[in-house]
Amino acid sequence: MKTVARTRQTRTARGAELEVKGCFSTLSTPTSSPRTLRQDGSNRSAPDTGARSSPPTLRIPKLFHPDRSTVQDVSFGQIHIEGCHVGHISTHYGIPVFSSKGRKLIFALSGEEPAFDEEKPGPNTGLKRRAGPLAPTGVGFDDLDARLLPPRQFVETIFQTFIKSAESLVFPFIDRVLFADTIRIAYEPVPGDLSEERLAEIACLFAFISLSRGFENFCKDSSRIDSDAYASRAQTILDATLEDMNMTLLQTALMLLMYHMFSGRFHSAYKLHAVACRLVLMLGGHLAVSNQPVGSETSRDAIEKRHLRTLFWLCYVFDKDLSLRNGLPPMINDEFCDMSLPPGYPASQYTSRPFGDPTEDINYEGCSPHFPADLLLHILKAKACRMLYSAAALRKSDAELLRDIRELDAELESWRMSIPASYRPVISAPNNPYKAATHGPSVLEGIHRVMLQLEYHSLMVTIHRVVGRYNTWHKTSSGEGTDGAAGVRSSLALSVEVSRSTLIFLRESAQEITKAACLFSLFFLIGALTAVFFHILMNPLDPQSPIDVELLDSSSILLKKLSQRVKLTADELLNFSVVERFIRELVRLGRCAILKAQKSVMTLDK
């Protein structure tokens, strides 16, 4: 019986290989190793193609040639290897969900059935009204009033602590003047029924309180907050009052969006993102350019106009990030927006004044918002999406594709060189990346550099990994498109090398990264893991592959350390556990692929 079972398993593996190997005519390591990248990031040449003793090559029979015209999904959220669609990014946890062909490919190359979690929400992914010390529950919408609010002094403390933190510049979803009015209106006693204005202010307050746990370094009492209860009430009011469009509801939608992202509920975040983008456009934020620096406004209207523009840029940043995560088209079209940058930007991004010791009483009043990473980088990200991942990109020839990649790569390098040297991202991870990133006056300044580094790596991979959906290798085997194939190999090698650098950078930065940055970094982590994993599968005999497997394994350890160091909610822990299990399975399959390839070579040598 054991012999029969073993025979069936062998036949199944061979059948899977025959079905998927139409996409992969040759599995081998490149005849050259990826380029050695200098720490200053100045080496932008293609990988060295000099002679090096290459490991044995595994020949795989071709049964069909992928046709670019049949590839319907070209967005970033789809995963392609040599022209074959092998999966997509889950909208629930942000991890890859492999298609039937992708699973057969993994089985053929590793000899093991992949055991990834199914794409479905866990038991805690929906908002639940759970009782907490500061959140009475069981109250319906008709009963919403000031009784549901925590003590005003508690809210004032959170508010004052937040606006004194540098994170209020990175995520400027509230304005100190306008939000002070929000607190006043929400708490002032008013007889009779609640007005829609007051309901909106209360919803904004609920959303702010729920989000404060994501910035717990600046909220000592965050553990007392039942975030889900407050977020649920904010959502209830938002749903009931959306017809009355105003900036307060826009702030509420943005803060709930961030709350869901922090909690790993990406599916809910995408829905709120659509609401926020539509609100900011209908309110005119895409055209309401304010030329007055922060703090120079002389009227409330001027403050509101400037803050609406700030909220537009926040929506814009999230729009480009989330479109890459879920593979859907961006909600905000640059061509219909006034893309004038805020006054003093980007020079205000790279001054040391806004950053200081978080233990000191620092006045950030009058400081310009910084936003996550760099607005110019996000604008370039939008251009990359249009040129490489739109429906029009499907009709581009190989030559046009490679030309666009070179153009975008040159623009990215131009942006990088425009950044002051102390903040400038590098292509490869420094020997001690976090130390290199935090040599300034404060840890928060270092976090800004860390996010710049991760966003830079992410955009570079976005630009170069697009070649994975084209089958240039098959043309090479028939003597066609040799130059194009070399360009594809160069882009793939670069995307893998940058992905390695991302994993190293995150590993070395883990001990100092804040909770907010930690939760945001999961996206960068998963993208890098996927790229390195498929490189191992495609090149199991490369001497670098065992090292890459250990690099994947170290990412699992990284998650454990992060979950122990920062205080996570139940949903955040669930999200971390899903990603951790995903990494462990990548490690297992990577090791199996290497072992399978080594055994195949030994068999051929006999």
Can you give keywords for this protein?
5 strands; three-stranded antiparallel beta sheet; two-stranded antiparallel sheet; 3% strand; mainly alpha; 606 residues
What's the layout of helices and strands?
Blueprint: H1 2-20, E1 26-27, E2 58-59, E3 78-81, E4 84-89, E5 96-98, H2 100-110, H3 152-163, H4 167-170, H5 176-187, H6 196-211, H7 227-241, H8 247-263, H9 266-282, H10 300-326, H11 375-389, H12 398-418, H13 433-437, H14 443-464, H15 472-477, H16 482-509, H17 515-538, H18 544-565, H19 570-605
Helix pairs in contact: 1-2, 5-6, 6-7, 6-8, 7-8, 8-9, 8-10, 9-10, 10-11, 11-12, 11-14, 12-14, 14-16, 14-17, 16-17, 16-18, 17-18, 17-19, 18-19
Radius of gyration: 25 Å
Estimate the helix proportion, in percent.
40-55%
Strand content: under 5%
Please indicate the count of domains: 2
Figure out the total of helices.
19
Keywords: DNA-binding, Membrane, Nucleus, Transcription, Transcription regulation, Transmembrane, Transmembrane helix
Subcellular location: Nucleus
InterPro entries: AtrR-like, XnlR_reg_dom
Biased composition (Low complexity): 25-36
